[in-house]
Design a protein that fits this description.
Layout: E1 17-25, E2 31-40, E3 45-49, H1 56-63, E4 71-76, E5 79-80, H2 86-92, E6 93-96, H3 109-119, H4 125-135, H5 151-163, E7 169-173, H6 181-196, E8 200-204, H7 208-214, E9 217-222, E10 225-231, H8 232-236, H9 239-244, H10 252-258, H11 271-283
């Protein structure tokens, strides 16, 4: 699909995020990122993974314009983040922080969603609030305090608050922290639904099983450097590569290796396909 050149940057409905030889140093002199180069295409679902301190959160803050590179460039639709405001970027690239309650300040759930819409000048606020509440399955909590919600509900509210203004990309820091299995399943479905609407989804997570269920691509960081980038099944089945990023593969991978599986598809990272192989092996 080609962009209509007569449309403004803010109106473009595709978003491409690119880092070109990006370095970022904090004031104490430590390089959080060292020469990171990668491109995230419109509509991709990407997991950014690595040990604590690998530079993951720094990277997505650069994608959102909250930080500017010390060296190199971050481009949003080929425009440097140095040349556009954080508010302009946020309209296209929304971000949900690791602790969603740090984003909350309104007295009610519906007011939390409405606030951002008013800031961006939307007219159909009531309609968008209703749609966001329905999308996040939070209708019955509309009049409640955001701080009274469960961990999973808070995360969904934070995502719904951002999605209400329909950014083209969504960045989420550690979406599964504090959530039980059923909440993780709900969230994975929720994020795939967002992706099915043509949105780009980028998550930071240590949860390899959730990443395998949710994403198509994995980017591995170690000490501020990209050490792996590719299809998630290829990355997760490469045990040496996972170890280099201080990550364990999904539990199913070593088992399937012992059963003689050499090439992995994304389906094999899921329980259903893996179970079929295990049953077949047991019958031999």
């Amino acid at each position: 699909m080609r962009r209509n050149s007569s449309r403004s940057w803010e109106e473009c409905t595709l978003v491409e995020i690119e880092a070109k030889d990006v370095w970022y140093s904090y004031r104490h002199g430590i390089d959080a990122l060292r020469g990171v180069s990668l491109k995230i295409e419109s509509g991709e679902r990407v997991a950014i993974m690595g040990e604590n301190g690998a530079g993951k959160t720094t990277l997505i803050k650069l994608f959102n314009g909250l930080l500017k590179p010390t060296k190199g460039e971050v481009l949003i639709d080929k425009i440097s983040t140095r040349n556009i405001s954080v508010a302009q970027i946020s309209r296209k690239v929304g971000m949900v922080f690791q602790k969603p309650e740090n984003q909350f300040f309104a007295e009610t759930v519906e007011e939390e969603i409405a606030f951002g819409l008013r800031n961006f000048g939307f007219k159909d606020i009531s309609k968008r609030v209703d749609e966001a509440l329905a999308f996040a399955s939070l209708e019955r909590y509309r009049g409640k305090s955001p701080f009274s919600l469960s961990g999973g509900e808070k995360k969904r509210l934070a995502i719904a608050t951002v999605m209400a203004w329909e950014p083209d990309a969504l960045l989420i820091d550690e979406p599964t922290i504090g959530q039980d299995l059923s909440q993780k399943v709900h969230l994975a479905t929720f994020l795939r639904d967002i992706s099915s609407r043509g949105k780009t989804v980028v998550i930071i997570t240590h949860d390899v099983d959730f990443a395998a269920e949710t994403c198509e691509r994995a980017v591995l960081l170690s000490k501020g450097v990209v050490v792996g980038d590719g299809k998630i099944e290829q990355i997760f089945s490469n045990l040496e590569l996972m170890e280099s990023a201080s990550l364990l593969p999904p539990m199913i991978v070593p088992l399937l290796r012992r059963l003689g599986v050499k090439e992995f598809t994304k389906g094999l990272l899921g329980i259903d396909e893996a179970e079929k192989l295990i049953v077949q092996a047991a019958k031999r």
